[in-house]
Amino acid sequence: MNLIYLAKPIYGGWVTFTAHLALKYKYPLYKISNRSEKFKRKFGYSVNYQNQDADVISNLQHKEKFFITCCDKNYYKFLHLFQDGTHIVIHDPTEVTGKKALPLLDHLKRFNVITIRPGMSKYLFDNHDILATYKPHPFFKYKIKEAPKLDVVAISRVDFDKHTDIIIKANNLLLDNDENSTVVDIYGAKNDLYCYHKLTIEQELNLQDYYKGNFKKDFNELNNILAPAKYSVDLSAIKNDGGGTQYTFLEAIYQGAILILNKKWITEDSIFIDKVNCLVVENENDIYNILRSDVDYSPIRHEAYKLLIPHLIVQY
User: Fold this and answer.
1) Burial label, 6 (beta-carbon count in 10 A; 0-12, 13-18, 19+)
2) The CATH number of the domain where 55 resides is what?
3) pLDDT at res. 261
4) Domain of 293: which CATH number?
5) Residue 66 belongs to a domain
6) SS (H, E, C) 115-163
7) pLDDT at residue 63, as a whole number
8) Is residue 239 over pLDDT 70?
9) For the chain, what is the mean pLDDT?
């Protein structure tokens, strides 16, 4: 099986999914470029890829199956190269929403569509009459180290759908109450539009007070952040995107950090249960109360790890 990454983003869930899939099953990774290259380039997380032009990819896919790990509008023009029954992953509703997605939807009807959240399979069928197979995110067990659990971190992007503003407000509350309080250290790639309009102009929040910067697409660096983390705050919420999980959740669970999740993520059929395998919050006051509490939430770690097992044994 050959993997092919048909998208522009160099950070985020698409990249992480592709890396875990490549590492877990030792699949080679390709991208389509204007020219073919004999050497390999760094993709991230110790994964390399090879650029090939469209003609080479077209010829290769007649010999070995291709697995499209993601596809954005910049690469729709290449979808005709792939045979009927080609595997493709659809990650969230934004990929199949609006007129811009019509070329992709046309091809999905002849591809073998896979989703990594059960709610997404239902969404595709209800809205586009497309049958899809749900498979959990594949998870590659990278090497981790042990460290005292003292920190609180957020490792998602700084963006609209990550609700970083709520985390900043919680930090402000903590420091207003006690200037020596442990606050949430914020990591991740920044959406400049969100930072300027939502944080600076609209709410006058100072991200830089708590921002620790972006981190490389490297498991060692991720390990350095999560190993000492007692809590991982992740307020991600995308409409129609619940009922499953994502890599920032799985990485935190894998490294023994207790997840603090957005209430919007929890649906009727959610695998997450408040105070059983995670802690659910709705606003900055809820985060404040958890971080100031003396309650021992450590049993949550064991229950949460059970959620990781399907991602360790899934076959792609």
Assistant:
1) buried
2) 3.40.50
3) 96
4) 3.40.50.2000
5) yes
6) ECCHHHHHHHHHHHCCCEEECCCCCCCCCCCCCCCCEEEECCCECHHHC
7) 81
8) no
9) 94
Burial class from Cβ neighbours inside 10 Å (0-12, 13-18, 19+) for residue 122 reads middle
139 within domain boundaries: no
From 134, 166, 191, the end of a domain falls on 134
Task: Kindly state whether residue 144 falls inside one of the protein's structural domains.
Answer: no
105-112: long-range contacts at Cβ-Cβ below 8 A with a sequence spacing of 24 or more? 105/130, 107/76, 107/79, 107/80, 107/82, 110/84, 110/85, 111/68, 111/82, 111/84, 111/85, 111/86, 111/87, 112/85, 112/86, 112/87, 112/88
Tokens representing 307 are: 């959620």
256, two tokens: 């023994």
| Per-residue pLDDT tens over the stretch 93-103 | 999 999 999 99
Exposure letters 234-265 (e unless 16+ CB within 10 A, then b)? bbbbbebbbbbbbbbbbbbbbbbbbbbbbebb
| Dist CA 316 CA 304 (whole Å) | 23
- Split into its structural domains, the chain has a count of 2
Q: pTM here?
A: 0.91
| Domain that residue 102 falls in | 2-134
